[in-house]
Structures are given as structure tokens and as C-alpha cells.
């Protein structure tokens, strides 16, 4: 292992430590202020704290923090995969309509079945994400030998606007659940208990695990199709596999936390700026930084206003929008 890889390994360990510290800090943040000591005691020995505090720590904030870690990891890794196989630094699940496709699938199902909860619709969200991804990639590459970064972004923006307008139209027709769905569609971790985490978490863990296992193939494809073919890679099957994997990650995270934006865009780009474009390292670093960023954004959503909670999607947009503007102006969308 080279010295460079040793430093990257050390950086990854520090990143994991940062996620652990942010996780503990997230258990202290909220209307009811708790110290780190209270949190640790509440987790290890609930009898040493009050019943209310123990319930708040173990049944409210702990599953919510786990949900933030899972959704942050999934969105960041999905963004890294999309940027690798499209070779476009502006590719991400939210900008290319994948998140909106998942959100529309869930909202449509709730409207048609008169449901009132977004739990249990993970597979529907995944199907919507996959259809949106296939649609944007197909329309942007139609009649083209290579995938144009500009055409990809234009097709993604058009599809995102179309899906968002359809979703809003459905919500207007379904006044009963409009407020709940609007908050969820902006990205929300409110009320995420163990039922939510168990229903969707295993899919996100499996998706991130698969991405880590195939990160060598991801790196090969990021070098270009000709290079990947020269290295013996069957490009088309792997592209479809990565597309399904993106749908798995994005769909399950949308089912859990709504279509949170900018995590999938900002994190992989920031990681590449720090450690380079070797996706064997970009993917694990992205998972780590995505979890950290969403934990921090969720803490901010709870404390930025004293009287009410802000949607976590608003916080990620606040953090990510300036970086996106700089990226679009500075790089022009090239991979």
C-alpha cells in the first residue's frame, strides 16, 4: 500500500470518527437540551436518567439519527455512482429527476390508494427512481454515440420540472394529505422511528455494501468506456447494474426521508477535490461525508428556529446551493 493510500486510510478513519461524534451531538440537539453525558447514560443505562429523557434518546432521537446516517450515505453514494458512469460532475439523483421520480411514485400511490402514510412504499419509490433514471439517460443519449454532459443536464432539468409539476397537481387534488406530503417532499426526518428505519434501512445498507464491493468496476468505467472495454469490462451490463443500484439507493432514501437535494451532488465533488478521482476511495469517503453532512443538516434544522423545525431539505439546499453555482460556473458541467 502506497503512502498516499495510507493517508487516505487515515483520513477515512478520521471521517468515521467525525460521523460518530456528529451522531452523538445529534442526540443532544433539539427543544429538550441534553448533554453528551445524559445521552451516553440514556443509551447504556436508561435507569440513570428520567423516563422522559430515556424515551426521547432511545425511541425518538436515536432512530432519527440512524435514518440521517442511512439516507446521507445512500444519497452520496448514489451521486458518486451517477457521476462515475455518466462522467459528469453535475450528475446527481436530485438534478437528474431520480429523486423526483421516486417522490412522484409514492405520492401517486398514496393518492390512488387513499393512503395516509409514506411508510411501506420503498419498492414503489425504487421503481419510480429507476424509471426516471432510464428516462433521462435514454432521452439525453437518443441518436448520440456518447452521452453529452450538457444534454444530460438539460434532459434531467426538464424531467425534474415535469415530475415536480405533476406531483404538485396530485397534491392539490388531495388536500387531506397535502401538508404532510409537502413537508416530506422537501426532505424530512421528523417522526422517523424504528419502523421506518427497519423497513428501508436494510436496503440502503445492502446498496452501499454493493457499491463498496464493485468500486473497482466503478473506477474503471469512470475512466471512459473505451478504457474500460480495453481492461476487459463488459460496459453495458455494468451500466445497467449501476443504474439499478442508483435506483435502489435513491428510492429507499426517498421513501425514508423524502427527496433531499444536494447531498448526491456536493459530496462526491468535494471528495474528489480532496483526494482525487479514484473511485475505489471516492465511494467510501462519500458514504462517510454524506452521513456526516446530513447529521449536521438535521441538527441545524432542529435548532435554527426556536419555535419550529425547518425541513432538513431546506438546510441541505442552503449548504449545497452555493457550491452548485460555483461548480456549474467553474467547470461547466464537464466530467
UniProtKB/TrEMBL annotation:
Membrane topology per record: Multi-pass membrane protein
Molecular function as annotated in GO: transmembrane transporter activity
Cellular compartments annotated: Cell membrane
GO cellular component annotations of the record: plasma membrane
Biological process according to GO: siderophore-iron import into cell
Tagged with keyword Phosphoprotein: no
UniProt superkingdom: Bacteria
Short name of any one Pfam family annotated for the protein: FecCD
Spans through the membrane: 12-32, 65-84, 120-140, 152-174, 194-214, 240-267, 279-297, 309-328
Protein's UniProt keywords contain Transport: yes
UniProt entry keywords in alphabetical sequence: Cell membrane, Membrane, Transmembrane, Transmembrane helix, Transport
Record family assignment: Belongs to the binding-protein-dependent transport system permease family. FecCD subfamily.
Name under which the protein is recorded: Iron ABC transporter permease
Organism per entry: Kroppenstedtia pulmonis
Amino acid at each position: 500500500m502506497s503512502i498516499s493510500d495510507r493517508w487516505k486510510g487515515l483520513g477515512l478513519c478520521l471521517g468515521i470518527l467525525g460521523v460518530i461524534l456528529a451522531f452523538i451531538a445529534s442526540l443532544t440537539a433539539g427543544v429538550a437540551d441534553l448533554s453528551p453525558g445524559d445521552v451516553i447514560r440514556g443509551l447504556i443505562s436508561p435507569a440513570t436518567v428520567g423516563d422522559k429523557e430515556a424515551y426521547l434518546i432511545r425511541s425518538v432521537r436515536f432512530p432519527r439519527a440512524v435514518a440521517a446516517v442511512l439516507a446521507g450515505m445512500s444519497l452520496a453514494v448514489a451521486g458518486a455512482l451517477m457521476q462515475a458512469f455518466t462522467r459528469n460532475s453535475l450528475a446527481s439523483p436530485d438534478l437528474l429527476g431520480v429523486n423526483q421520480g421516486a417522490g412522484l411514485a409514492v405520492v401517486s400511490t398514496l393518492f390512488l390508494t387513499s393512503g395516509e402514510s409514506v411508510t411501506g412504499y420503498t419498492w414503489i419509490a425504487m421503481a419510480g427512481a429507476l424509471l426516471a433514471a432510464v428516462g433521462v439517460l435514454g432521452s439525453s443519449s437518443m441518436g448520440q454515440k456518447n452521452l453529452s454532459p450538457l444534454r444530460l443536464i438539460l434532459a434531467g432539468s426538464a424531467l425534474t420540472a415535469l415530475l415536480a409539476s405533476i406531483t404538485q397537481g396530485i397534491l392539490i387534488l388531495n388536500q387531506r394529505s397535502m401538508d404532510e406530503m409537502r413537508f416530506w417532499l422537501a426532505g424530512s426526518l421528523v417522526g422517523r422511528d424504528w419502523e421506518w428505519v427497519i423497513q428501508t434501512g436494510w436496503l440502503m445498507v445492502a446498496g452501499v455494501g454493493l457499491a463498496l464491493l464493485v468500486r473497482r468496476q466503478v473506477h474503471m468505467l469512470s475512466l471512459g468506456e473505451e478504457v474500460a472495454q480495453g481492461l476487459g469490462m463488459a460496459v453495458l451490463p455494468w451500466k445497467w447494474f449501476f443504474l439499478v443500484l442508483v435506483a435502489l439507493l435513491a428510492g429507499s432514501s426517498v421513501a425514508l426521508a423524502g427527496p433531499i437535494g444536494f447531498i448526491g451532488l456536493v459530496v462526491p465533488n468535494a471528495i474528489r477535490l480532496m483526494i482525487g478521482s479514484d473511485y475505489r476511495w471516492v465511494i467510501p469517503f462519500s458514504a462517510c461525508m454524506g452521513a456526516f453532512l446530513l447529521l449536521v443538516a438535521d441538527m441545524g434544522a432542529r435548532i435554527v428556529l426556536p419555535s419550529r423545525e425547518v425541513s432538513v431539505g431546506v438546510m441541505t439546499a442552503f449548504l449545497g446551493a452555493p457550491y452548485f453555482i460555483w461548480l456549474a460556473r467553474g467547470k461547466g458541467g464537464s466530467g
